[in-house]
Amino acid sequence: MRISMKTADFSIASAGASLHDFLSRFDGKPLTGNAMRPTFSESMELVGLSTNWNNFTDEQKELINTLVENGQAHLFAGWDEPGTNDDAKQAFLESLEKINGNYPGGLAGYISNARKLLAESKAGANPFEGLTPEQPEKVDLTSFTDAFEKYESIGAQYFDKVGVVLVAGGLGERLGYNGIKVDIAVEVLEETTYLKHYADNLLAMQARSESKRPVPFIIMVSQDTGSKTIRSLEENNYFGLQKEQVHILQQELVPAIADNDGALALKEKYKLILKPHGHGDIHMLLHTSGVAAKLAAEGIEYFMFIQDTNGPSFNTLPAAIGVSVENGYDFNSLAIVRRPGEAVGGLAKLVGKGKEFTLNVEYNQLDPLLRATINPEGDVADETGFSPFPGNCNTLVIKTESYVRILEATQGIIAEFVNPKYTDETKTAFKKPTRLETMMQDLPKLFGEAEKVGVTVFDRMWSFSPNKNNVVDAAAKVAAGGPADASATAENDFYGAGRARLKAAGMKVKEGEEIKLLGVPFTTGPKVILRPSFAMTLEEGRRKISGGSISDEATLILEGSGITLEDVELSGKSGLVVKACDGAKVTVKGKFENDGFELVELDADAEVPEYLKIRGYTFENRGAQIFSFTEPGEYVVEG
Fold first, then answer.
1. How far apart are alpha carbons 328 and 22 in whole angstroms?
2. Contacts of 126 (CB under 8 A, 6+ apart)
3. Which of 82, 301, 409, 429 could anchor a disulfide with 423, C-beta 3.0 to 4.6 Å?
4. Are 501 and 149 within 8 A, CB to CB?
C-alpha cells in the first residue's frame, strides 16, 4: 500500500522537511499515542514506526529518513508497537542497511535509477533508436590455420598476465542436479568436475609461464552457491591452486520494484522481495572489492570472463588473448557462427549519428531491429547459410587498463535495464514485481572512441557447449531442430575437442557414429581427453604426437607435460590412459588392443547418482590399459 504523508500542517515528502525533523520536535522522547494522533490525522500508518524510533541506531534512522524522502514510507506502514516482532524489525532494517551498503549510490541511487528506467520503458523508448546494425570487426578462427597458431603463440606468452573470472552463481536444479553447477562432472570417464577442469587449466598456464606466477582466479558466487563453492574448494585442497590466488566475490540480491514510481516491493511486513541483479554484477564486485585495481597494479593485463558450465572456454584462451594483444582490443567478445533464429544473441556494430558501439543484441531483439533497419525479412541467413551476426558465447577478454578506468568512472554499475511485465497496454501496473538487471557483456555501452572492441569467431564445438538443460528439455529442443545444450552434448564436445587436437597433430582419427541417448545426440567416439597439463596449444600437441591412429570406439586419456606418442595405434574399443607427474618423461609407442571402456545406457528412472541420471549413460572399464608414473624419470610404454 502506498501512503499519503500529507497532514494539516506538515508533509514528510515535502522539500526541506524529513521524518527526522518531525521526530526531533519531541526532544527524543518516544512518540506515543496522544502525541501522534493530532499530527497524523490522515495517516496513522506510521504511528508504529515512531513508537519504535528510540530502538534504532543513528545509521538506521538516517536510512529510514532517506527512504521516506524517496517515496518508500509504505515500507514502514503498520509497524507493531515495541515488544512485538522486534527481531523481525531489526532483521528488516539490517537487510536494508546491507543493500544500501552494497549498491553504489545506496538505495536512493537504486530507486532513482529504477524510476528513470521505468519511465523510459513506459514511454516505449527504443534502446536502438537511430542505430543501424553492421557486421562487427571480427577475426575468424573457425579453422586451425597458420593465423590460429600465430595467435595461440602470442597468447601463450601472456599466461602470467591473465586473470580468469568465473561467473558461477547457479545451482543445478534446472538440470536435475541437486548442487552447484560447477560441481557437475564435465566428463564421466574420470568424473572431472567443471571446477576441477578450470583449476587444471590455471595450473597448466602457470607451469608454462616463465615467472610461474599463480594465475588469479576470481569466482562470483551467489547466496545460494557461496558456501557450497567454498566447501568444494576446501574439500579438494583448492584442486592444487593456492588459496591466496582464489578470490570469492559474492553477489547480493536487489529489491524488487512494485510500480512505475519505484516503490520497493514487500513480500510481507518486515520483509522485502529480493531478486538477482544479473551477471553484470561481476563488474561492480570487481570494483567495490578492489580486486580489479589490485590485480591490474600487480601486472595483470587481461581478464578472461567465463561461464560456469561452458567447458570448452579454455580451448579458446591462448588464441583469444593473442587476438586481443595483436589487434589492440580493449574488449574482445568470443563468438560462434550463428544460425538464424537461434536463441543466442547476435554481435553487431551499431552505427548512429556520431556514435558507434559493438554490442550483443539479444536474439529476441535482433529480428525486429533488422526488420526496422537493413532487412525487412529480419533474422535470416546470408549467402553462407548462417546469420551475418556472430553468436555471443559470453566469453569475454577485457584489457585491464581500460577496464579499471571505466569501473572507477561508473562505480561498476554497467548499463542497467528493466523489463517489467505489464498487466495491459496502458503500462500502469505490473503483473508481478520487476527489478533492475545488468549483463556483463553490455560493458561496451560505456566505451568511447578511445576503446576498441572486436569479435573473435571460433568453431562451436571448440568454444561453446554449455550445459544448461535437463535431459527432457534437451530432447525436446533437439526434436524442434535446436541444440541440446545438455550434459551429454557438453561431454560429447569435450571429447570432440580432444579429437580435433589429435587431428591437428597428424593422427588419423576415425569418427564414431551419432546415436541418441534419451533423445539427445551423442557420438560413440573416439573419446579423447588431452588434459591441459599435456597440451594447451596446437603446436604443443603437434610436438608431442607423431603419427598413429585411433578407432571410432577407442578411448585415449593423457595427463602430464612429459608424455610423447610415437605411431600409437588404438584399435576397436581399446582404452589407453597415461598419467605422468612433473619430471616424468614417458614415450608411448606401438599398437594397443583391449576391451577399453564400454558405454552403458541408463533408463530415465535408473537408480544412479544425479550426475549420471542427467546424462542417461555411464562408462564401465572392461580392460583399458592404465599407466601412472608418480616418480620423475624416463619411461617407455609399448603396446
1. 58
2. none
3. 429
4. no
Name the one residue in this structure whose C-alpha cell is 556472430.
390
CA 2/CA 513 separation, integer angstroms: 64
* 22 or 362: which leads in pLDDT: 362
Number of separate helices (H) and strands (E) present in the chain: 19, 33
d(CA 583, CA 634): 9
Residue 276 preceded by cis peptide, ω within 30: no
Q: Which residue shows C-alpha cell 560441481?
A: 183
pLDDT, position 125: 86
Sequence-ordered list of residues with C-beta below 8 angstroms from that of 97, at least 6 positions apart, any chain: 59, 60, 63
Joined grid coordinates for residue 567: 605411431
Q: What is the pLDDT of residues 51-62, one digit of tens each?
A: 999 999 999 999
Q: Which amino acid is at 496?
A: G
Cα–Cα distance for residue pair 107/252, rounded to 1 Å: 13
Residue 42 reports pLDDT greater than 50? no
E-strand ranges in 182-268 read 185-187, 192-193, 217-221, 246-250, 254-255, 266-268
Distance CA 455, CA 333 (A): 5
Integer Cα distance of 152 and 139 in angstroms? 13
What is the gyration radius of the CA atoms in the chain, in angstroms? 29
Q: Which pLDDT score, from 0 to 100, does residue 23 have?
A: 40
Minimum mean pLDDT range among 362-376, 390-404, 499-513, 520-534: 362-376
- Count CA atoms within 13 Å of residue 16 on its CB side: 1
Helices (H), 146-210: 146-156, 194-208
Mean pLDDT of 292-312: 98
Residue 390 CA to residue 333 CA, distance in Å, equals 10
Instruction: Enumerate domains of the chain plus CATH numbers.
Output: 19-102 (no CATH), 137-262+271-468 (3.90.550.10), 490-638 (2.160.10)
User: 439, 277 in Cβ contact below 8 A?
Assistant: no
Q: What is the DSSP letter of 215?
A: P
Q: What is the mean pLDDT of residues 118-139?
A: 93
Coil, helix or strand for 200?
helix
Helices (H), 416-469: 460-463
Q: Is 570 exposed, middle or buried (0-12, 13-18, 19+ CB in 10 A)?
A: buried
Residue 312 has, within 13 A of its CA and on its CB side, a CA count of 30
DSSP state of 340: T
